[in-house]
Amino acid sequence: MHIHAEVRNAEGSMGIRVAVAGASGYAGGELLRVIAGHPEFDLVAATAHSQAGSPVSAVHPQLAGLDLTLGATDAETLSGADLVFLALPHGQSAAVAARLAEGVKVVDLGADFRLESAEQWTRYYGGGHAGTWTYGLPELPGARAAIAGADRVANTGCYAATIILALAPLIAAGVADPEDVVVVASSGTSGAGRNAKVNLLASEIMGDLSPYKVGAHQHVAEIKQATGAGSLSMTPILAPMPRGILATVTARRLNGGDPREALQAAYADAPFVHVLPEGSWPHTAATAGSNSCHLQATVDIDSGRIIVVSALDNLGKGAAGQAVQNANIMFGLPETTGLSVFGVAP
Amino acid sequence: MHIHAEVRNAEGSMGIRVAVAGASGYAGGELLRVIAGHPEFDLVAATAHSQAGSPVSAVHPQLAGLDLTLGATDAETLSGADLVFLALPHGQSAAVAARLAEGVKVVDLGADFRLESAEQWTRYYGGGHAGTWTYGLPELPGARAAIAGADRVANTGCYAATIILALAPLIAAGVADPEDVVVVASSGTSGAGRNAKVNLLASEIMGDLSPYKVGAHQHVAEIKQATGAGSLSMTPILAPMPRGILATVTARRLNGGDPREALQAAYADAPFVHVLPEGSWPHTAATAGSNSCHLQATVDIDSGRIIVVSALDNLGKGAAGQAVQNANIMFGLPETTGLSVFGVAP
Amino acid sequence: MHIHAEVRNAEGSMGIRVAVAGASGYAGGELLRVIAGHPEFDLVAATAHSQAGSPVSAVHPQLAGLDLTLGATDAETLSGADLVFLALPHGQSAAVAARLAEGVKVVDLGADFRLESAEQWTRYYGGGHAGTWTYGLPELPGARAAIAGADRVANTGCYAATIILALAPLIAAGVADPEDVVVVASSGTSGAGRNAKVNLLASEIMGDLSPYKVGAHQHVAEIKQATGAGSLSMTPILAPMPRGILATVTARRLNGGDPREALQAAYADAPFVHVLPEGSWPHTAATAGSNSCHLQATVDIDSGRIIVVSALDNLGKGAAGQAVQNANIMFGLPETTGLSVFGVAP
Amino acid sequence: MHIHAEVRNAEGSMGIRVAVAGASGYAGGELLRVIAGHPEFDLVAATAHSQAGSPVSAVHPQLAGLDLTLGATDAETLSGADLVFLALPHGQSAAVAARLAEGVKVVDLGADFRLESAEQWTRYYGGGHAGTWTYGLPELPGARAAIAGADRVANTGCYAATIILALAPLIAAGVADPEDVVVVASSGTSGAGRNAKVNLLASEIMGDLSPYKVGAHQHVAEIKQATGAGSLSMTPILAPMPRGILATVTARRLNGGDPREALQAAYADAPFVHVLPEGSWPHTAATAGSNSCHLQATVDIDSGRIIVVSALDNLGKGAAGQAVQNANIMFGLPETTGLSVFGVAP
């Protein structure tokens, strides 16, 4: 498969050469869009499995004007890149990563390298554990330095990012009891991938809220690892919107601490995480197309539990935006390069 | 205001004469639709405040063909009815009810007469407590008999119905800890009423999930009263769909009890409450346009908490359907008369 | 495949025995819902291809409580029925119909038997022409008598029904020029069927309007046959809603005729076709779940062309409702039996 | 009202000072988003009527992180700007523009200055004609030069832009008959503005297609002026999506010309107008958040009419994006500066 490198919108002259493996899905499409507008990235290759040979704009009509053809996901196609994003189905990243040269920086959007514990991997995902890469959530304490020094970074999952950003500071500050966390989180349909399944058809989804994997979602392991939560009940729900995750995270309050202050302290310098003014609650549409996460917290007047609500774009801060933010840090660029703080709304 | 009593679709010859006060809102429109198809009800009057004088079909285009003009909400217009449904804004039911003759049966869809405790009323709603009517959720133990003997029934709130049906049997059976209940519930927009507000505009809602009244929703008092829950955290969310409520109810598990069995035992004879086969989870679209509530329960593999998911149509089992079910019981009719068990989907 | 005949909601004692072949799709599900509430129909069998053996409620969650198992689409399963609805993929009706006994009444929701001209069939559908059955649009002049005398009726297509109801009276009355008709019609996604295709995924559809088969839709032949139009340009568009078709039909005006009066005259006695009051325009949501069609007409102030807008539910008057209306007529029942004039809205 | 000029995301050092009058609506919000990411623009003021004094992010939650307070729409607040965008209700632009200094460049997103004919203005809008500014659709022949030399530019209307881009080249090339144009165009709800009206509520819009102003839309005058069309029938429809316009433009074909070639020739050098590959049809979601317009054309096999389909984002190429494109040209910047060619999808 020949690669057309003359990307219409790339204008960086000494840019970083970037490839996207698994570019035909929704996260892949969003990666291409963000990369095409990134001042330091030159998009040199995009690969896909069954759609290799198709123009990118045939697979992603929103990219009409991007002159690039999808290649096969093999070492040759990816070999010219300084930076490779892997947006592959779970379980396929390890094989592709193994064929990339050592100096190439890689961000994996899949789950393969997120967990430290092989046992937890097997419990939640099944099969053999591929290994552990640097965990790519820059807003966690110490994470920026670790990411800056890494060549291989495992991007946070979309649900996980939404929930960890809401919960981690509360547990770290001793405000929330890590042994009694209850999460209900709803996701837009792009989070379920570009898979031709009857239950994802528009006719079934519009007007509908439907829970799935109730009581046993695989992101629980990742959330517990990153937050220190000991017990966490999670109910994921599919919502009738293309993008966005809204997580309601509740926990028993400890020591009369103020959950909103804990969040403000944790994210004072984070350009993409906004603790909203008191009385304003996050909603997903406000984050669409951006790399921002919006947060708010209160204490329930009846039960006294802490309630934190967190919203982000599952394809933005939950996937492609997050991945580019990690890559920016890996290359020593300002964290916000090529990323939008502002959502596209309404 | 003259009343046109020749309703095109009513065909009952010795029917019960029915009036709807507050017929211009969404619950009022749904009441008219259900009543028009009810074999024992004759719709004789429908009233509204600012739209008195308009044909019903001008206010509710889905009722084109219903030959009825909206009257004023006064004693004269409502005087010919054997049964009056009140679908008025909160706080207005008492004044209208006071003007109805004693023998007239009344179902109030508002909150005014739901609470037993004047103190709770003032805490959650503010203002003076109008009183307490028979609580209209037929599936609660003993409720059918109470409703059958009552002339005044207070219909359950929409969120409350969804959550009470999920929670009451678990607390009654000793399976769930009443002191640690966490609820996150999402509602379609018709639950917010037919009010011209910017935050309810389609442009703001589509693609958006937005929480509101977090930690302080007024239905909490009603839910606690009906279930015996002692502590309940509730987060309500507005979802981008016209109808439907999906509630995720979690509670600490007691005594290793089986939550699904408790639900099955409670609703074995309830025609409108369906505990789904194991592995099937409720979703809102399946209940749209019906008076059914769908339930499923499990135990979280990580936290051991009970998770119950409950779905219904906020205008159906959450409002108009429920009200007609109560009225059926009040008049000694089969509970299901004129009501649909089946949803309109997709 | 054994058939469970004890349908929970059927209560007719001397009912007509009804079977649905192809019950797993959206039109099939709607047929089951309408039949289950029909006072003279007893649902005795529902068949499907790949999902034979599944409970109906597993395939159609909105029918929870309907105790029926899907059978195979064969002569044995269908043999006990007095009335069979065929809701099969195009091209499969002829083979199934051939195996049904002569006295059995059949309504085919597919296209196979709609066209009179074998040449037109081949042009628009390709392949061999199966034959021509009585055309099942009762509101056309003379159609009720023909349907009442028929054992085999070909149900109108969903786009075709929307457009023919708007256009036929204008051409018949000499108000519209049959040689210059332009139609743009948008359909909800259930019109595209329950097919697991990427372009029908919720993520692709929500927020999107997408035209397809532009300039060459197969319903054109059927519309011309039923209306006498000589030249018709049709652009179909997929709209982000589960149900509903809105057709804008424009034509050159002849003789200064009044298009609205022509429509009123044509449908004065049609219980399901409503010419709205002047100034009110049809919209799809008002017809959802009903068997009604809403119409309005005007003359464009700039071009002088006639504009008629027509709305109906593609699964109602465009498929299942229409089919039951035809069956009612075939069995001598009142046309409206078991069908709703009123939509489920919002 | 004091103006906070320290906009977080503006980084241009010698930037053009920009103000937005009427910033609280949807077009105003989109303008703020685009300006905040524009490398040569410094946002110095944003004004609103009733919401003056509110932080921008309280009115536009998607702009959380933009540190700016809405001012009053008066000469003082706008006086520091080199460039002013007017996004005011129709009829208010003239008064505000009159108070701006002569050298200030102004782009008006309203209709006030679009029409050349006072008579047409009065016919379609009523009231007195404010005057005529340079018409701001850069892709029209000769328009770029006119815009580059203008200090006052009237931005094209959203429907008008969609339709003119589809139609103008066909009439100019003699391919389409200007005396027989039929347009049906559907718009997302943001095109109806941020007005608290019942008919724009989410409950009414979701699941619904509703026509309005049938046969008498005010954009007809603008379209005829810009394209040379002599007779044009237009039916506008409100669609259940927040953004996007899809126009189907049909016209009688002249001289056997090829409509697609005419479009390709007209837009060969237009960076934002994409004539799609044959067989691909425009859909609105692919243009969301971008300044692109997608086009495709064919000849109807039955009627021989030309059918052109045009899609764009009503807030992008139909309003804010178009306005920034015009401003870029007015300031001698590359036309694409700060604008995205690519849509945000899904």
From TrEMBL, chains A, B, C, D:
Active site positions, chain numbering: C158
Broad class of where this protein is predominantly found: cytoplasm
Stored Gene3D superfamilies: Dihydrodipicolinate Reductase, domain 2, NAD(P)-binding Rossmann-like Domain
Sorted UniProt keywords: Amino-acid biosynthesis, Arginine biosynthesis, Cytoplasm, NADP, Oxidoreductase
Signal peptide segment: none
Primary enzyme class: oxidoreductase
Localisation per UniProt entry: Cytoplasm
Enzyme Commission number(s): 1.2.1.38
Pathway field: Amino-acid biosynthesis; L-arginine biosynthesis; N(2)-acetyl-L-ornithine from L-glutamate: step 3/4
Any one Pfam family match given in the protein's UniProt record, by short name: Semialdhyde_dh
Keyword Amino-acid biosynthesis: yes
Top-level lineage group: Bacteria
Residue ranges of every copy of the Semialdehyde dehydrogenase NAD-binding domain listed in the record: 17-148
Swiss-Prot/TrEMBL catalytic activity: N-acetyl-L-glutamate 5-semialdehyde + phosphate + NADP(+) = N-acetyl-L-glutamyl 5-phosphate + NADPH + H(+)
Role noted for this protein: Catalyzes the NADPH-dependent reduction of N-acetyl-5-glutamyl phosphate to yield N-acetyl-L-glutamate 5-semialdehyde.
Family, per entry: Belongs to the NAGSA dehydrogenase family. Type 1 subfamily.
NCBIfam families on file: argC
Protein name: N-acetyl-gamma-glutamyl-phosphate reductase
